[in-house]
Automatic annotation (TrEMBL):
It comes from the Bacteria. Belongs to the MurCDEF family. MurE subfamily. Its EC number is 6.3.2.-. Its main location: cytoplasm. Residues 26-97 form the Mur ligase N-terminal catalytic domain. This is UDP-N-acetylmuramyl-tripeptide synthetase. It comes from Sporosarcina saromensis. UDP-N-acetyl-alpha-D-muramoyl-L-alanyl-D-glutamate binds at residues 30, 152-154, 180, 188. Pathway: Cell wall biogenesis; peptidoglycan biosynthesis.
């Protein structure tokens, strides 16, 4: 891109050296600088990108954007000095990628729980009805069926613009993004123009970062505020009417807001809900009349997710009949109450619940068909060095299960003992075990199960690793559980 055109977007303090005519690339990581590119030095939580300016020059950068003095040869490279490089990249990235979000319908999904589920359901339905679609979030970046790994739920501003440009170039009609509160507060969505903002719910999580529920709720609301002020555009907010924070989200935008819910009156309302182990059906009241909806996803929480999906895709202009047809055939998002296929006499789910509300909802999903004979075993892990306040509340909700195994998900640098003791405070009955090593915890769950029992492994979901210390180790709840269950029950099945 032409340098004058690119840097014209910045309030520049000084330029040392001579700006080249063009830059080929933008980078915030010295390790991904390409020859002829520009490197922006970001001060992070861990390191200061200014330390890597010389590495960037050696990798071929022609321009460095910095706020602090950098010791580089200005005969070789131009240095653009600004007040704040984080704000600079927020302006440079969308300009460099030519404001790609304007070329598609952009749907942002925020809330404590349900972001991955809702956004992947929308993506799957759009593809089912023949539209090209992209989605980014905790599972990665899915470009019309091809999955790429990403670092964050909501990526840094540069990666975000790169991914949106990729989706636009691939002629996607829609890009759905999971929008985290961290992403909103840290400006990772600068330059992303959303058309539809969806709010799922708000409950206790990430208070280590936000300090209070009020701050956390405010951060989520920024997605609605970021719908902008150009009221001539057709934009929509979608909010959960049964969640007290829904009203607050609504107040953050002047655009029309469609509501959904089960208990309160709403534009999209579900009633006559039938929950089973095979799936869920409900009656839908909508602005277009009444419909029957059925889907293979289990649990009342998925009724909320389905309502959010229906309202958002309706706002995009898709016929409700087509959305319902899509809902009938799509699978659960990976690792979200995902049933592990087995002919062994156990029902096993892998789930990503790691907040008190999600744990309650995951357990409630199986209660309607569990009966009194079968035991529900719930394995709950929490991460080390992260929100400690939620731990007892997680165990309190887990206590709804008959037998609970308290363990870790990514212990990081925190000792097992401190994680487990803080969880244990919340237990409401004595039918539980504390086992820090997750593999051992999974094996124990199968060891205590009887034929017909249900086990939910919560906390790791789609992830196939565990972070212990600073390292990632391969880990799969499903594989360990199946191996153990095969040893325990396999002969029974084979002999039949
Ligand atoms: C606390 C936090 O937000 N950290 C984010 C932050 O990392 P950081 O500030 O530590 O980065 P850093 O390592 O100090 O690097 C600073 C700069 O130096 C550069 N650098 C670094 C090394 C080098 O050799 N060369 C170089 O140029 C880096 O590229 C970067 O530009 O910037 C990184 C790049 O954007 C993010 O990946 C990282 O997210 C970490 C992984 C994280 O765990 N974040 C969590 C808190 C988070 O954001 N979570 C939410 C989901 C919440 C939910 O579940 O709802 C999310 O959206 O993911
Ligand atoms: N609408 C919902 N309400 C409450 N719990 C939900 C809802 N949808 C999913 N869950 C539960 O929360 C877990 C996480 O769901 P999902 O990954 O969709 O949420 P998320 O908002 O993307 O979470 P995260 O930010 O942690 O990635 C699921 O595994 C399920 O147990």
């Amino acid at each position: 891109m032409n340098c004058n055109e690119l840097f014209d977007v910045l309030p520049i303090k000084t330029i040392e050296g001579i700006l080249p005519e063009q830059v080929t690339d933008l980078a915030v990581n010295s390790r991904s600088v390409n020859a002829g590119g520009a490197f922006v030095c970001i001060k992070g939580f861990t390191v200061d990108g200014h330390m890597y300016a010389q590495n960037a020059v050696e990798a071929g950068a022609r321009v460095i954007v910095a706020s602090d003095r950098v010791d580089v040869d200005t005969e070789r490279v131009a240095v653009v000095y600004v007040d704040d490089t984080m704000r600079a990249i927020a302006l440079l990235a969308p300009r460099f990628y030519r404001y790609p979000s304007k070329e598609m319908t952009m749907i942002g999904v925020t809330g404590t729980n349900g972001k991955t589920s809702v956004s992947n359901m929308m993506h799957a339905i759009l593809r089912h009805i023949g539209e090209k679609s992209a989605v980014t979030g905790t599972i990665g970046f899915n470009l019309d069926g091809v999955l790429f790994e990403t670092e964050n739920t909501t990526n840094d501003v540069l990666t975000t613009q790169q991914l949106i440009r990729q989706a636009a170039n691939a002629n996607c009609s829609t890009m759905t993004m999971e929008v985290s509160s961290h992403g909103l507060l840290e400006g990772r969505l600068a330059g992303t123009e959303f058309d539809i903002a969806v709010f799922t719910n708000l409950s206790h999580d990430h208070l280590d970062f936000h300090g209070s529920m009020d701050n956390y709720g405010h951060a989520k609301g920024l997605l609605f505020a970021q719908l902008g002020q150009d009221l001539e555009k057709k934009k929509f907010g979608i909010v959960n009417r049964d969640d007290l924070w829904g009203e607050r989200m609504k107040k953050m935008t002047a655009f029309p807001v469609l509501t959904y819910g089960i208990h309160q009156s709403a534009d999209f309302r579900a009633s006559d809900i039938v929950l089973s182990d095979k799936g869920t059906s409900f009656h839908l009241e909508s602005p277009e009349g009444e419909f029957n909806v059925s889907m293979a996803l289990i649990g009342e929480f998925n009724v909320y997710n389905a309502l959010a999906v229906i309202a958002a895709l309706y706002a995009k202009g898709i016929q409700i009949e087509s959305i319902i047809e899509g809902l009938a055939v799509i699978p659960a998002a990976k690792g979200r109450m995902e049933k592990v296929e087995t002919d062994l006499p156990l029902t096993i789910y892998v789930d990503y619940a790691h907040s008190p509300d999600a744990i309650e909802k995951a357990i409630q999903a199986v209660l309607p068909y569990k009966g009194t004979e079968r035991k529900l075993i719930f394995v709950i892990g929490t991460g080390g060095n992260r929100d400690r306040l939620k731990r007892p509340f997680m165990a309190e909700k887990a206590s709804i299960a008959d037998y609970v195994i308290l363990t870790t998900d990514d212990p990081r640098d925190e000792p097992y003992a401190s994680i487990l003791s803080e969880l244990e405070v919340g237990m409401q009955h004595d039918q539980y075990a504390c086992i820090g090593d997750r593999e051992e915890a999974v094996r124990h769950a199968v060891a205590v199960a009887n034929e017909g029992d249900i086990i939910i492994f919560a906390g790791k979901g789609h992830e196939d690793f565990q972070i212990i210390g600073k390292e990632k180790f391969p880990h799969s709840d499903a594989m360990i559980a199946l191996e153990e269950a095969e040893k325990k029950f396999g002969h029974q099945v084979r002999e039949q």
